[in-house]
Design brief:
Rossmann fold; 10 strands; alpha/beta; about 400 residues; 2 domains
Length: about 400
């Protein structure tokens, strides 16, 4: 279960409007796009077996896996594989279809020249330019290298009729669906996130078990987090900085940023989501956070059990002034840094929301992602916007398509 610490905002916010947040939470089940909320309970033995089977097949046949997808079709998968060590899965995972850089594509195809590889193409809508053109490149490469696509291409698509789904059925490739009631940025617990994790050798059943545990524990902490965010926003704190002291959680921050940014940034308002990685970014953004504009607040994520540590050895080569750290664990020093940063930032006028996840593993990540999805939906409802649409995203797509077609 995720634990929320509100002591770091006590001097900045008088009280939380929990009643309004609880009312907002009750709106989730009634929404037509609330399918993500029941994914942990709906996950079946057959679903897990199909995903694990495909993941094992990818790992056995391939040195590398290429994941094609934009936004929620790739960020969740990336967050999982960067945070959780794989065990016996495919060794290399590359992401494409989230940009239109010819340089990036040329370098990636060159990297794959001497590697056996498989491809996961994920797009719920099937109408996003970046993954569509990337898939064209990799269809050509797969045909040239292997001929038959059935053992090398895995497609994740929406359950509605689409060219991508039809192609998967025609070519006989493995096809995985994203329920129509699950939006892209809420799809990490579907094949959009879990298939890549399975190929990497990650225990996807444990990811879902963590999410299920969080769902069954009730939404109390998520509701309080949403209420605190919106209370701070109303008090003039317009930017939320998501911070973690684990470098392997960097992609998790990017997933969080899309989830909240695309859900709340509407109608000329919304909390602006930003991410930093500590302690590294203390040497780049730390000064601004400490003494810059006072319209920011932080959410600092820490983990309980981390499953690994390293000891700082004594240094007999020269006197570096850090002999007092001889024999101490890195995690211990990291925890001291976290406490110091929190205290300094609060003293500098930055409200700090503290989150602690139970463990930095499959179960902990599954619980954390479900927690954030719930909190995001509640927070957006509190802000008076729909958590599940993204009308602004379609604007640039229309303009770009018009220019590429040579029309106004």
């Amino acid at each position: 279960m995720i634990r929320l610490d509100l002591s770091g905002i006590s001097g900045f916010l008088e009280k939380l409007d929990l009643g309004a947040a609880e009312d907002a939470a009750r709106r989730i089940p009634a929404h037509e796009m609330s399918g993500w909320a029941v994914l942990p309970a709906a996950y079946s033995v057959a679903t897990g077996a199909k995903l694990r089977g495909a993941g094992s097949k990818i790992a056995e046949s391939s040195d590398a896996l290429v994941v094609l997808g934009a936004g929620g079709s790739s960020l969740g998968a990336r967050a999982l594989i960067e945070a959780i060590p794989g065990r016996g899965g495919v060794r290399e995972v590359y992401f494409a279809g989230d940009n239109l850089s010819g340089v990036h594509m040329a370098r990636l195809t060159e990297t794959l020249r001497d590697r056996d590889f498989s491809v996961i193409a994920a797009s719920k809508s099937g109408t996003t330019t970046e993954p569509a053109v990337a898939l064209r490149v990799f269809l050509k490469l797969l045909r040239e290298r292997y001929g038959d696509l059935r053992d090398r291409l895995y497609i994740v698509a929406g359950e509605h009729e689409s060219p991508m789904r039809s192609f998967a059925e025609t070519c006989g490739c493995a096809l995985f669906g994203i329920p129509e009631s699950v939006g892209g940025r809420y799809s990490v617990l579907t094949a959009a996130g879990l298939l890549t994790a399975a190929a990497r050798g990650i225990d996807i059943d444990e990811i879902v078990a963590g999410a299920r545990s969080e769902a069954e524990s009730g939404a109390g902490e998520a509701i309080r987090y949403a209420a605190a965010r919106q209370g701070l926003y109303a008090a003039g704190y317009r930017t939320e900085i998501f911070a973690s002291f684990e470098p392997d959680a960097k992609a998790l921050g990017e997933w969080w940023r899309q989830l909240f940014g695309e859900s709340e940034g509407k109608g000329g308002g919304g909390i602006f989501p930003a991410t930093v990685g500590f302690t590294g970014d203390l040497h780049s953004m730390g000064q601004y956070i400490q003494e810059g504009r006072r319209d920011i607040f932080e959410t600092i994520l820490e983990f309980g059990a981390r499953g690994g540590d390293a000891v700082i050895p004594a240094n007999a080569e020269f006197d570096d002034g850090f002999a007092f750290l001889d024999g101490r664990g890195f995690n211990d020093v990291n925890d001291v840094a976290a406490r110091a940063v929190r205290a300094a930032h609060i003293d500098g006028g930055v409200p700090v929301l503290g989150l602690e996840a139970g463990s930095f593993d499959e179960r902990g990540l599954g619980a954390l992602m479900y927690f954030f999805e719930t909190a995001c939906a509640v927070s957006a409802f509190l802000a008076g916007v729909d958590p599940f649409d993204q009308p602004g995203v379609e604007k640039y797509k229309g303009i770009m398509r018009g220019e590429l077609r040579g029309t106004d």
